[in-house]
Amino acid sequence: MPETEQVIRRLAEIPNVQVCAGASLARCTRFGIGGPADVYAESAHVGAFLEALRVARGSGLDYVVIGSGTNLVVSDEGFRGIVLRFTADRILRAGDCVTAEAGADLQALVDFANAQGLKGLETLAGVPGSVGAAIYGNAGAYGHSISERVDRATFYDGERVRTFGNEACQFHYRESIFKRHKEWIIFSAELVLEPGDPQELRRTSAEIQKVRNEKFPPTMKCAGSIFKNLLYEGLPPEAARAVPPRVIREGKVPAAWFLEQAGAKGMRKGYIRVADYHANLIYNAGAGAARDLCELIAELKARVRDRFGLELEEEVQYVGFPEQVARLS
Question: What ranges do the domains of the chain cover?
Answer without folding.
Answer: 2-86, 91-196, 217-326
